[in-house]
Design goal:
2 domains, hpI Integrase, Chain A, 339 residues
């Protein structure tokens, strides 16, 4: 995680970030997103308020904002926020999900300035609506593709430069496909987090929340097999507790895991441009719902979703189940014609 450029921010933005980190206990990733979103918004405000001039080939990202005063922030209206979101859509072709995140960051920022720190008398974002999101069905591997991916990774001994790490890579793929964990959760696993007796582990999920993930026998076997070959000497001091290590003998990075998944997908004959680490999470959830008869509330708990509506996307992915449900309607075939 890179250090935030505090000297480039106005003091009230840094105050907000400190509040979010300490009082709200937001994760470093969330703080970084807040910083990026609000910084971008404030740069737009300076340009929109004609406080700075740009050449035709210059982007608003080049604008400095560390000289902004609260007197400028107090002039911001809801229409200015709408103008920022419209600017992002027109100039960056930002998708609804990106615009929704920006809007959420702006709401939290102004809530802090107005309601918590009392730095401004009026909250211009209080009536800000979240951009409507397109509901898309999640992409996921079929059961056959998932089995092929596991089989290929288990036997993988060459072709991508990681042949000495096939047990590690197999454990990574196994955890993704069986548990549906997030990338950050997998990278953050420490050996001490694993309960080898009760087959479970604790992870730090989204929003810096701790949750328990239960491990099946396939996961436990894959972890134990990897631990049997995991380096024991020369591990970097701050990575001694990490479950998964890189070839540099330090905690594996997000980028390395993404590379591993991409290469294993490619070796399995699966298009790596269509599927990603997050798609493996979708795959785990879909297969559990489709074949395991998992209750939607249990699936919500397993995936660490805050809202049940997020989990409900997995109830719409299986058209076969819908067809079977219609066929099993007790009225089917009982009355075939009107007399």
């Amino acid at each position: 995680m890179s250090i935030l450029p505090r000297e480039q921010n106005p003091y009230f933005l840094n105050d907000f970030l400190d509040y979010s980190s300490t009082i709200l206990n937001k994760s470093p990733n969330t703080i970084k997103e807040y910083n990026y979103d609000i910084e971008h918004f404030l740069k737009f405000i300076k340009w929109n308020f004609n406080m700075v001039k740009l050449n035709d080939d210059e982007d608003i990202k080049s604008i400095l904002i560390n000289d902004l005063e609260l007197s400028t922030i107090q002039k911001i209206q809801l229409e200015d926020i709408h103008a920022f979101l419209a600017y992002l859509k027109q100039n960056y072709h930002s998708k609804p999900a990106t615009l929704a995140r920006k809007a959420a960051s702006i709401r939290v920022f102004f809530h802090y300035l107005c309601n918590k720190s009392k730095k401004i008398p009026f909250n211009p974002s209080q009536d800000l609506e979240s951009p409507k999101l397109d509901k898309r069905l999640p992409k996921y591997l079929t059961l056959e593709q998932s089995q092929e991916l596991l089989s290929t990774t288990l036997k993988s001994t060459n072709g991508h430069g990681n042949h000495d790490n096939n047990k590690r890579n197999f454990a990574i793929i196994t955890l993704f496909l069986n548990c549906g964990m997030r990338l950050s959760e997998l990278v953050g696993i420490n050996i001490k987090d694993i309960d080898f007796v009760n087959f479970k582990l604790n992870v730090i999920g989204k929003g810096n929340k701790e949750r328990t993930i239960y491990l099946n026998s396939s996961c436990m076997d894959a972890i134990k097999n990897y631990l049997s070959v995991r380096p024991k000497d020369g591990i970097k001091f701050n990575s001694k507790d990490a479950l998964f290590l890189s070839e540099r003998k330090e905690r594996i990075s997000n980028r390395t895991v993404q590379y591993i998944v991409k290469e294993e997908l490619k070796l399995s004959g699966i298009d790596p441009n269509k599927y990603s680490v997050h798609k493996l999470r979708h795959t785990a959830a879909t297969l559990m719902y489709k074949y395991g008869n998992v209750d939607i509330r249990a699936l919500q708990e397993l995936l660490g979703h805050e809202s049940i509506s997020t989990t409900e996307i997995y109830t719409h992915v299986d058209n076969d189940q819908i067809r079977v449900a219609v066929e099993k309607n007790p009225l089917n075939g009982k009355i075939n014609k009107i007399s």
